[in-house]
Amino acid sequence: MIWLRVILIVAIVIMIVIMIAWALLELNLRSTTKRLEAAGVTFEALTGRKLEPELATDQFEAWTHCPSCGEFDCHAMREPLPWIRQDWLAWNSGRTAWIERNTWTQTITSWGGHTSRVIDSAPEYPIAEPVNETRFATIRICKCGKEWGQK
Ligand SMILES: [Zn+2]
Q: How far does residue 53's CA lie from ligand 1's centre (Å)?
């Protein structure tokens, strides 16, 4: 049984070495980021572009910021779509089927085999709910995929 103790001690020593190495790497990465920030290296300085999603507006501007990624550009436009009940019903039935297919249930049992807890994940349906876009004059489309209305 002494070899089991030796293996256990070696495993603990290896784990401690890995944890120390990981902690040193993490500290090293943090200090690099701080040095870049201290030197004034920003996304704007590197690319010449400003990312300011807080400047996005629902009032029409030809050149505007994306509310998601902040890209300042003359974003593509499309016609606003009206809300159609059939579209919403199709979206809702698709969403219901998607949630039924993708719900992931985890059952946690105790040592005796009794169920102590059941966890249901609540997946988020990836397709946006159809909305009435006719209150907007145009819908802008960013390269990142974000679409938003402007009046
Ligand atoms: Zn964007």
A: 8
